[in-house]
Design a protein that fits this description.
The protein is mostly beta strands. The protein has three domains: 62 residues, SH3 Domains (SH3 type barrels); 60 residues, SH3 Domains (SH3 type barrels, Roll), CATH 2.30.30.40; 111 residues, endopeptidase fold (from Nostoc punctiforme). 13% of the residues lie in helices and 38% in strands. It is built from four helices and 21 strands. The strands form seven sheets. It has a six-stranded antiparallel β-sheet with strand order 16-21-17-18-19-20. A hairpin with a 2-residue loop joins strand 11 and strand 12. It is globular. The N and C termini lie far apart (46 Å). The model has no long low-confidence stretch (mean pLDDT 95). It comes from Deinococcus irradiatisoli. Belongs to the peptidase C40 family. Pfam families: NLPC_P60, SH3_16.
């Protein structure tokens, strides 16, 4: 009976896992220098599909069913309990409830952190929440989002570096931006641009919050012409106008259509 695959991977009963405190690169091949295809955020639910003895595994993200290779050493075997969703674009977990304390971890919009069963601490008018085994997170980093406007949230990412396969405010790609922004409001999108286009209702006349689709690219419309998107031309999240300027003209020529979230 075949129980192993080429590359040393063996068949296992798929098992649940959860990403730990750091962002986890999912790669195209089981190699450290292989391209990143996506990224699991802290606390994200996963499934281990295949594994080999050296620690590499083929993983599936449970929310969008995306596949990639990663090492399993930092994965959790039990679901995090009493979690807080990070709503700040970026933040840090500190070793003590003070901004001068050592930084233990980076967090980002969409990350989940475990709330410890301890009382919050206020220091110099800053309220700190106990998270993880020994960390502290400023409460403002987990404050509820005030307005369900994906376009407004996407604009907060302006200047964020473009990173292929990234899904965080430390660096992301085009579909990572749209997925994370929509996800912040409970709107689940697939991982890649073509998948997102297939999931949305096509529309002829775009409005604020619609997505614009191109070959291998996606952006979020601010109005009928302006679009915020993570792109490798600016190597950052930027705003461009369809049909305006050299880049805008290229975007207009490559436009495949628009899609709207309908719930």
């Amino acid at each position: 009976m075949l129980d192993r695959l080429d590359g040393g991977f063996r068949f296992i009963e798929p098992r649940a896992a959860w990403n730990g405190a750091g962002r986890l690169s999912l790669r195209a091949r089981p190699e450290a220098l292989s391209p990143q295809v996506s990224e699991a955020l802290p606390g994200q639910a996963l499934e281990v599909v295949l594994q080999r003895p050296d620690g590499w595994a083929w993983l599936r993200t449970l929310d969008d069913r995306y596949l990639g290779y990663a090492r399993v050493e930092g994965l959790l075997t039990e679901a995090p309990k009493n979690t807080l969703a990070v709503t700040a674009l970026r933040g840090h977990v500190y070793a003590a409830p003070k901004i001068t304390a050592p930084i233990l971890a980076e967090v980002c919009l969409g990350a989940l952190v475990t709330r410890r069963d301890e009382a919050p601490v206020t220091d110099k008018h800053r309220r700190w929440l106990p998270v993880g085994e020994q960390g502290w997170l400023q409460e403002v980093c987990a404050a509820p989002l005030s307005d369900a406007d994906p376009a407004e949230l996407a604009l907060r990412f302006i200047g964020t570096p473009y990173v292929w396969g990234g899904r965080s405010a430390w660096g992301l790609d085009c579909s990572g931006l749209t997925q994370v922004v929509f996800g912040a409001f409970g709107r689940s999108l697939p991982r890649d641009a073509d998948m997102q286009q297939a999931a949305l209702r096509p529309v002829e006349q775009p409005q604020r919050g619609d997505l614009a689709f191109f070959e291998g690219h996606v952006g979020l419309m601010l109005d009928g012409r302006r679009m915020v998107h993570a792109n490798a031309t600016a190597m950052a999240v930027s705003v461009d106008t369809l049909g305006e300027g050299e880049y805008g003209e290229r975007l207009q020529a490559d436009l495949l259509g628009f899609g709207r979230w309908t719930g």
